[in-house]
Amino acid sequence: MFFRNLTLFRFSPAVAKDLKRLDEALADHRLRPCGPLEMGTRGFVPPVGRGDEAALTHEVNKCTLLTVGSEEKLLPAAVVNDELQRKVQKIAEEEGRKVGGRERKRIKEDLLTELLPRAFVRSSRMSSYVDRKNGWLVLDTASRKSAENALTQMREALGSFPAVSLAPEEGPRALMTDWLATGKLPGGLVLGDECELRDPATATGAIARCRRQDLDAEEVKEHLRNGKQVFQLGLVFDDRMSFVLGEDLVIRKLKFLDVVMDELGDSQQDAAAEMDARFALLTLELERLLAKMEEWFGLPRPTES
């Protein structure tokens, strides 16, 4: 269970102490199936194992894994609108009158009541973990909306969870643009083979995307000389992981390299042991990376709840 994308929040030591009750707090917020007339539900599901008795958290070395699940009814607007149009047309033909806006709204509401119980249900899961030692909430998503939804679920369960968005003291865009332009990166960090450059002067400015590209190439430097700045940059950290870092400090396309995977080995005796080993490896590797990001961009941990 290795994360592929990372959206990050920070919290204070006082908040970390409160997170010790996380498993108890989540108990009343398990995911439940969609009711016949509900469009969707959201709640927590066991990150390891299945069933109503399975724990909703899994802890290794002060890092607690949890999973937010959701069920969503699939009822395309086109289907509803087509059925609505048929009913409106039938009334016009049989009763010889036009259907007004208020009546159309009532008919549509009746259609939803009729169609929802028969709609397909799409399930989704999103893993995350809290690092109480270092004050990080790490969510396996690049979507800000999905991250905020998960954070809302945690706040509802805990009553309060004052995790905050990253507020870098060093501008990520300017810093990454300098890394690419000069080739002078922090120790242990080297350029990958992917970047996205934009002209920040206008909202509709030119965009240059490079993939599987030597980022030291002259054509890349020419874009920078013409005023473009780095919005996403492929990087390799300590020859152990590769990723694409955005100017929003969201990490995308995270991949552990062979040297890390070799350390995992294949000696685990069962699924639970393998889960522990993978989660421990994930959190230890990311602990090192996030500590460096804190240093590069100035990401202090909040001191108050």
From TrEMBL:
UniProt main location, coarse: cytoplasm
GO biological process: DNA recombination; regulation of DNA recombination
UniProt keywords, alphabetically: Cytoplasm, DNA recombination
GO molecular function: double-stranded DNA binding
Signal peptide location: none
InterPro entries for this protein: RdgC (IPR007476)
A cellular-component GO term for this protein: bacterial nucleoid
Cellular location(s): Cytoplasm, Nucleoid
Keyword Lipid metabolism: no
Source taxon at top rank: Bacteria
PANTHER family: RECOMBINATION-ASSOCIATED PROTEIN RDGC
Family of the protein in this entry: Belongs to the RdgC family.
Its biological purpose: May be involved in recombination.
Protein's name in the database: Recombination-associated protein RdgC
Organism of provenance: Dyella dinghuensis
Source taxonomy: Bacteria, Pseudomonadati, Pseudomonadota, Gammaproteobacteria, Lysobacterales
Gene designation: rdgC
